[in-house]
Amino acid sequence: MTSVRRYLISVLIAVLVLTSFLAALQSYRLSAERARELFDQDLQLIAGAIWQQYDVNMPQPAQGLAVQLSRHGELKYRSELAPQAVNSWAQGYSEQNFAGKRWRVFVQSGNNGWQIMVAQPLQQRLQLADELITASIYPVVLSLPVQALLIWLIVSRALSPLRSLSAQLASRKANELSPVTLEQVPEELKQVLQSTNQLFERLSATFAREKRFASDVAHELRTPLSVLEINLHNALTRWQQQGLSDHDETMLALQQGVERMRQLIEQIMLLNRTHPDNFQAKTRLLDWVALCRQVVSEWFSQLEQKQHSISIEGDEHLMVKADDFALRLLVSNLLGNAIKYTPAGGQIRLTLHTSRDKAVLAIEDSGPGIPPQEYPQVFNRFYRVGGDRHQFAVPGAGLGLAIVKDIVSLHNGSIYLAPAGFASGLKVTVELPL
Amino acid sequence: MLINTVLLVTRELLPLLLLLVLMLQLQSAQKSRFLLLSVLLSTALVLLLAPWLALLTQLAEGNGLELLFVACYGVSLLALIILLTAKAGPFSPALVVITAQGLICGINLLLYSFTGIGNVDKGDSYWLGTLLALGIGLSIAVLWFHLLDELKRRTPALLLLMLLPACARQTIEALALLQQTGWLPGGQALWDSGVVVSEQSEAGVFLQAWFGYEATPDLIQLTGWLLTLILLSALGYRCYIRRVKNGL
């Protein structure tokens, strides 16, 4: 199909012409057949009307012609159904009543005084005409549902590329920007398809540029930052060797600033790396409980420093199919957040269990928590509760939960926030399919 | 009678239209040029032969026209075989097929229109019948075109398969004409499928135009038809497999 318009016009006209002409032919056939039967019937009736005079035993037909022959008003012959009296009806065709019926009568007189009257019951004539007309209408009426069915099929077929296009667009994921391809592209859709694909191409390039930009900047900043870190360390060492004191802790602030910048760059790079579009997950069966224990041990010095009490509850083993690096990063980010925001001496609880077809990890802390109205926003990049001037003065970039959310998406899981089971605090629940 | 005219004209027109549609589908390009050229060539040939029809009919003891038609069917069959075995639908053999079929169709219609052959009434019913036949023929051709288009899109090899019934039709038509002229002996009908599909019905006319349906075939006609179908299927299959192996 090169053009929907051309296809519809040509096929619909062809179907309508074909069905109409075939119906007309069939009408012609049936009408001709019926007419032949009627003419034969007439012949039979005429024969019967004449035969009655010579064969008294012949049964009177229920339907038949009435024939009357007279000369100068004297009846010479009449068929069984004809009136006994000679009537002076007008010449030619007329409608008369006799023998308890309405008749169509034809009267013809000759110059020599002879008059012939032939009559046929009106009801019989109407019935015959009706049969003939019905025979001709029947195929036309029957062809209508056939036409309707064919039109439905043809229109459905003609619009199939459009349906295919809309189905493809509807089934696309938000991040799927590859060109739309159709098996058949009719002329009417060429421009639409071309424009749509150009739009997808431009969007794809823009998104790729945006993603690459943050990653490239972070990567480029890494080297000078490392140099800065080393120089700062050397400068601090020299200061200490020369016995110089840092009364206002400028060097310390400088070191902390550089460290925060390094963490930010690492987070940006991780965010880019764990994005579902970029991350090539190597999933395998992992024991989530064991992995959580390892992550807790990695954070042990910070936990000890802040004297947090931490517990891992629930199942002994919980096997999930996940990427080791990504899952470790997920637990580490969530635990790191809990440690950061929980005041010294607070509580952190990790609970792992299965729920129907899901593996569930819940991390609760006894920190200040997050107001429920801010739950949806905290997964946005660079979003920090309370803004830049964070009320707890905890350093961070606002990327940790964004990374966690990407990892959860990567594993087709889900993440929820809720108040913790402690007096205060936040509960982060991660569900991954088993 | 109207119905006679419709059947007569459709019987002549439909084989040409079905073949024309098939040839058009086999052309990868230049479809309009092919259509124009085939119509022009057929018309020119019919007009060229029209003044000599009376003389042609007298030739070969009154069998001149029949033998001309046999030659046309033979040439068509050869051209169809070339098309079946060729790499791509070539232009010239397809043109030969349509010109030969156009010649048969044109001469027969001329004879029906201007002579008493075919017992066609030349009154209003003749023109109405011709119009109905033209409408039916063209409508079937349009639908046939789209059906073949769909087949070609799904499985291109099916288009080549459609050449086989066309070939078999050329054989059976030529054999029937040769029997008519007495060059081949006539035989007893092997069966009569006229009760199921009459040759006088619309379906019968269509099947006749498609693969040369005969309600009462004799042994020679059936053998010729089957041999053409079997031999050309084998030949076509071999050529197709070779082309597939060569990656064409």
From TrEMBL, chain A:
Q: Which SUPFAM superfamilies match?
A: ATPase domain of HSP90 chaperone/DNA topoisomerase II/histidine kinase, Homodimeric domain of signal transducing histidine kinase
Q: What EC number(s) are associated with this protein in UniProt? A: 2.7.13.3
Q: What keywords is this UniProt entry annotated with?
A: ATP-binding, Kinase, Membrane, Nucleotide-binding, Phosphoprotein, Transferase, Transmembrane, Transmembrane helix, Two-component regulatory system
The UniProt entry, under InterPro entries, shows:
HATPase_C_sf (IPR036890), HATPase_dom (IPR003594), His_kinase_dom (IPR005467), HisK_dim/P_dom (IPR003661), HisK_dim/P_sf (IPR036097), Sig_transdc_His_kin-like_C (IPR004358), TCS_sensor_his_kinase (IPR050428)
Catalytic activity, reaction form: ATP + protein L-histidine = ADP + protein N-phospho-L-histidine
Q: Which GO terms describe its molecular function?
A: ATP binding; phosphorelay sensor kinase activity
Chief location category? membrane
Taxonomy, superkingdom: Bacteria
Q: How does it sit in the membrane?
A: Multi-pass membrane protein
Gene3D superfamilies recorded: 1.10.287.130, Histidine kinase-like ATPase, C-terminal domain
Question: Does this UniProt record's set of keywords contain Phosphoprotein?
Answer: yes
What are the record's GO terms for cellular component? plasma membrane
Name listed for the protein in its UniProt record: histidine kinase
Species whose genome carries this gene: Rheinheimera lutimaris
UniProtKB/TrEMBL annotation, chain B:
Alphabetical UniProt keywords = Membrane, Transmembrane, Transmembrane helix
Residue ranges spanning the membrane: these are 6-22, 34-55, 67-86, 93-114, 126-145, 219-240
Domain of life according to the entry = Bacteria
Task: Give the protein name, as stated in the record.
Answer: FTR1 family iron permease
Origin species, per record, is Rheinheimera lutimaris
